[in-house]
Hints:
The chain is an alpha+beta fold. The chain is about 30% helix and about 30% strand. Strands 2-1-5-6-7-4-3 form a seven-stranded antiparallel beta sheet, covered by helices on one side. The radius of gyration is 20 Å and the shape is globular. The model has no long low-confidence stretch (mean pLDDT about 95).
Amino acid sequence: MTADPHQITDLARLEGIYGAPSGAAVEKELDYLHPHYRLLIAKSPFVVLATGGPDGLDTSPRGDAPGFVQVQDDKTLLLPDRKGNNRIDSLRNILADPQVALLFMIPGVGETLRVNGRASITTAPEVLERFRVEDALPRSVIVVKVDTVFFQCSRALWRSKLWEPAAQIERSSLPSLGTMVQDISRDKIKAVDYDHNLYPRLKSTLY
């Protein structure tokens, strides 16, 4: 088979296309949580957690009231693990490989915050208690030791128009989750039952 002449296979060629970063692209990267970065985390109600393990990579959305991810100190973040589907893909991966990445987003704000670090999992009662909501505790808390942190500019969100009301689509334009599950499971799970119970179940099991 003839090799694809357009496939990039070495770093020198890649860097020749893109060039070297400079200025703010470099200076904004820190190894600790600067007060400005702390403020972005405090305002964020949503973060994507990326992990890797023996079975591959995983990304997991996490959300709650703004500031639900707590800054313990300049090098440490605490992320509660609430009720979910019990797949625990992220937690399994952390046990195998502690390297994680976080992407914080703030509604209406184009900039995002990227954090790379190493994670562990704790069930220490005093840590769980910090995240009590509606008299419920998280099942565990992910402790992230920060290696690097920096903000990402707003180009991606501008291009996607993510926060623009006119860009939102009606949920009804997509198949219901029940329909998806029924088709994917080959009728093992019925759409009518799944859809009927989904939102009451989600609402009653948030915490």
